[in-house]
Amino acid sequence: MPEYQLLKIYASVANQLLPPDQLKTLESSAKEQYEEKLKVRLSEAQKQLEAFLIQHKATPMGKLAQELSAEFYELKGQLDPAAFLYRGLIADYPKSGRAHWGLGRYYLARGDIRRAKVSLEKVAEFWPKHVGSRYNLGLIAITEGPEHYREAARWLAEAFKLNSADVGVLEQIGVLLEAHNKIPAAVKYWRRALELNPSAPIALKKVHQHSGAVIEDLIAKKSWKEALEKIETLKEGAASDNEYLLYQGICFRNLGEFEKAKKALSPVVENSPKNALALRELGIAELNLEQTESAVDLFKRAGVLEPKEPLNFAWLGFALEAKKDYGGAISAWNSAATLFTEPEEIKKALKKVVKLEQKFTKRGMASEPKAEED
Length: 374
What we know:
Elements (H helix, E strand, L loop, with lengths): L1 H13 L5 H5 L3 H29 L3 H16 L3 H14 L4 H14 L2 H14 L4 H13 L5 H14 L4 H13 L3 H14 L4 H20 L3 H9 L3 H4 L2 H13 L3 H14 L4 H13 L3 H14 L4 H13 L3 H14 L3 H25 L7
């Protein structure tokens, strides 16, 4: 049967093809061997197609054989012969979506976007369930600028409807949403892409770029538990990065889970010893765990790195007070008072200074020897 003959020829090539991800992992020598072996197999398959066409050229199976022959030329990197065959097929079969798709790929490879767009629109017209043409039309529309975003949205929506698990489509929908400043919605699509392919390049980059902003917004709103949930939804690898460990530490600290906060923040300080925020947050956790000496050191280091941040000195004041170093605590709170800009914060700092001065005075009086009675 002709169908079986064509299927056998096609399978002889398809069985030799490696997935793109696996191909990337090959060393140069192994890749050269693979490509050489594939070229040999393609040449053999084309000879078989030529023999097939002698008998079946004027039949639907003959048309399919010509399409396969063009695709085999394309796989061998012989794009011009492939394009010649695609044009011939279109002349004989103007509504051949497969031939228009091949010619569209040729123009894309040549950087001829105008002609590529014409071919791809023909594919979408004659091949109602073809995802690749719609994806590429959406991509072209995005690169053409904001005035074409509505067109891009239409093509990508059609592609998504046909295949909601296409990683490229999911990534580009996210890019389009990002352009409209709909970051949470965009991140949702990128995360879905990463669930399907953990190494999806655009999604991986964008999730790292924007997840921090989403989490920072939740932290600013003091939505600690929701921020932790967002962190947990990230890839395991991403969640171990300093940035996300810092976010975890801040959330745990504000929830009063100081041991968890210390566990998250300690590697951040170790890996980034000049991160003043991490130093201060770890200091707060350790102060609450009554590890006062270490906390004092952390607050002092943070103060050196960020000498204009009043919180470094305010927390140093708390830690020194816990050590009963009232003189040092007074000095720290005075520094904080001069750095705060909000009147209410300045007022609180100065009140703290007054209370510490009273403690300092009482302690001084208690330490003075009593006068002997005459």
